[in-house]
User: Fold this.
Amino acid sequence: MTKKELENKLIELCKKNIKSCSYEELYTALLNITEEESAKHVEAVTGRKLYYISAEFLIGKLLSNNLINLGLYDDVKKLLEANGKSMAELEETEPEPSLGNGGLGRLAACFLDSLATLNLPGDGIGLRYHCGLFRQNFNNNLQNETPDFWLGDDSWAKKTEKVYPVSLAGKNYEARLYKIAVTGYEGRTNCLNLFDLDTIDPSVIGDGISFDKNDIEKNLTLFLYPDDSDDAGRILRIYQQYLMVSAGAQMILEDAVERGSDLHDLADYAAVQINDTHPSMVIPELIRLLTEKGIEFEEAVEIVTKVCAYTNHTILAEALEKWPRHFLETVVPQLMPIIEKLNHIVCDKYNDQAVAIIDQWQNVHMANMDIHFTHSTNGVAALHTEILKNSELNHFYRLYPERFNNKTNGITFRRWLLKCNPELTAYIEKLIGPGFKKDASELEKLAAFADDEKVLKQIMKIKKNNKKAFAQWLEAKQGITVNENSMFMIQSKRLHEYKRQQLNLLYLIHQYYEIKAGHLPKKPITAVFGAKAAPAYTIAKDIIHALLTLSEVIAADPEVSKWLQIVFIENYNVAAAEKMIPACDLSEQISLASKEASGTGNMKFMLNGALTLGTMDGANVEIAEAVGEENIYIFGQSSNQVIRRYAQGDYCAKEWYEADSNIKRAINFLTSEAMLGAGCADNLYRLQNELIYKDWFQTLPDFNAYVVRKNQAVEDYALNQKDWAKRALINISKAGQFSSDRTIAEYNDEIWHLG
Ligand SMILES: *Cc1c(COP(=O)(O)O)cnc(C)c1O
Assistant:
């Protein structure tokens, strides 16, 4: 499409000249143009096609991303600017799709982008949530949750005429298919298939995000991860999962038959990737459907095992779903006999309770079913996969060593560089040409400029500009002013104790005391947070409260606030991440070693020229290997030390608290007069007790090492900007291996064999 054609089309759709259009009108018109253009790149599928099934797709806003992928972005931007309009304001018009929660959902979105970019036939299957997770805002230093209604009149999710019958608890429902076009960068167009019921009714939502959990017809797809602190919430998750996999499985079979499959040869037509355990019921559901169509049970099991592969995302026990048998008997009675039979096969063959699907307490272990009845189980970073093989899933690894493999996560550079950091992208292109946009390994060519003063100056200038842009965005959004000349250290990710925002909190209290005592940091510090806490996760919410309260205490103290500021971004999502990441100097990746499966935030920051302060956990290990120890700040216990400590069960937080005056001082401060004056005693005391008496994620043993490494980073940053820029450049040049194009190519070569 030429620029002239684009202009004419816009005018035609809006029925007036561009100058007099509202942003809403322009957005709607561009959405239509994008859909028309992307439809031109839909390709007929021959051979094996991938279905990536996931409870979450954290896709972010789509307009700019699609325009970039379709090669229309620059023309649209120029056209708008020539008519007095700005791309940035246009982007504000688009609501962010609320279909995901964190890393796992974002990974699924990056994978769809890379599949289409690499010209591979691969679609997503998920649910069309009406309110997603929730919208977060802060009130009295507390997290407040409201429904995130994102489905406007002009959603990217197009309603189709297609419905699939799904039986839930013996009642028949119709799952309607919605489709979102997934564009590839100079590639093909694939599809994200989302299912929903026509009968959903938001009027069942009460205060905040509470709702009647029993009215399935009206509530089924309202929220992602409904509160599972009671049985009704947990059962609702099973309803959701089955709606997704049953409709998905029917669609997969229909697709295959349409393309010539006789179902015996389904594996030549379909590959299914199970993203974490939420879609695990697709295994018995596919078996059920195949036997219904006349295939013998044993053969159906064999077919499904060949078709399906499973990705494990965590070693946290709480996330390896297990459902009480009677929940499944209630919601999916048609699956229980199949799961039962699968369990028999396993028990007859191995006679080992540790690998059974149904345990002696009648819980059904979804991950166990996945490992037995798929041909591939993968972890998401080298260290994570090793931990799976050697400890968490060792019983299974010994049965199926050939099934276990690693696929280190990645991120799409289109969104996490081209889209979010256009100035850096243009500069890289000037230095090494445009090849890196499709072949990320070309970033290595940047290393040649590591000692080029002009280049380093420009890298610093771009960072400065991004910090300025972030500051303006923050001012407009939350009315907060930050010091652009300070060092920005950012920790943005879901709030979880294993990610240890509380360690960062203790550091900031420590800094507060040091500044009070006249020990000033070498450079003013701005500590930025972005994080949502699960609504029922009390301690996570207490950590948010403590950070917000501390922020208020510091802001009210002119002695300290000159040197230290804490900013908490409301409602952390993809749009916020796109603003924060390019502005970051120091990326905080401080999870307890062994607990973060991979992380992808770490990769985004690195790609945008931040240095990492991190533990040897998840993909941090591979980042450290790639950049070398002089270009990253590593601290803390190793994963082996942590695993040993858990095994011995002898960690006693109180001993660390009593033995270290800095730790004691920082933890005591949580319930100081100043903190209690600005915050809530209940929350602050609860968090304090948690840290002294429990500290399940071993914050205290890493405290001193964290303080030392972080202060080293502040000093290095303050004393030698040029050297910092050089190390940032090296980080960027080594980021190529963390492109999701590399990850997807590996999945395809080793698991899927598409096309
Ligand atoms: C990348 C991303 C995440 C994952 O961050 P981690 O640091 O890997 O946990 C979560 N949320 C959003 C919005 C993201 O963009």
Observations:
- The domain at 470-729 is CATH 3.40.50.2000 (Rossmann fold).
